[in-house]
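Course assignment 3, question 2. Fill in each field.
Student: A.L.
Task: Predict the tertiary structure for the chain below.
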Amino acid sequence: MKLPKILAEKKPEIVARWFYLVVNTYPADTAKFLIQENDPFANPVGQALREGLEGLYEGWLKGASEKELYPYMDRIVRIRAVQDFSPGEAIGFVLLLKEALRQELKPEIGEGRVSWEDLEFTYSLVDRLLLLAFDVYTRCREELHEIRVKEIKNQVQKLWERVNKGTY
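Answer field:
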């Protein structure tokens, strides 16, 4: 059986494992909540992670373009960009797909149905997802900085208006 077929057949297990690995980058209480709470209104972050990871994996399997993958990547990275993560941690979730693949394909690797060469090629495709995550993260941070600058300008403008009216 060829690797793409195995990856498609094992999609639910691989995506679930990836979700679990990503969620465990959060503090323990948060991770527990993200895993256990399935109501999308009570747990919008968990829902966004689930949908984003599944969409990324599905698109990645099909060889989707960056443009097609962007909305899924944006959903995840946008959340992580405003949370208490370093830039590396914010986009590092992509590399956890390698670990999910390694864990879920262990039997196939052991049986020789998946070669290390195939796995290394697959990992190189994951690395391309990481580059997309970096681009998305950079755009998100630029947007945040633009919002902050605009907010400061508005505050300064209001202060000048009060100074000019003599009501400071």
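Instructor remarks: Residues 3-143 form one domain. The longest helix spans residues 116-165.
Grade: pending
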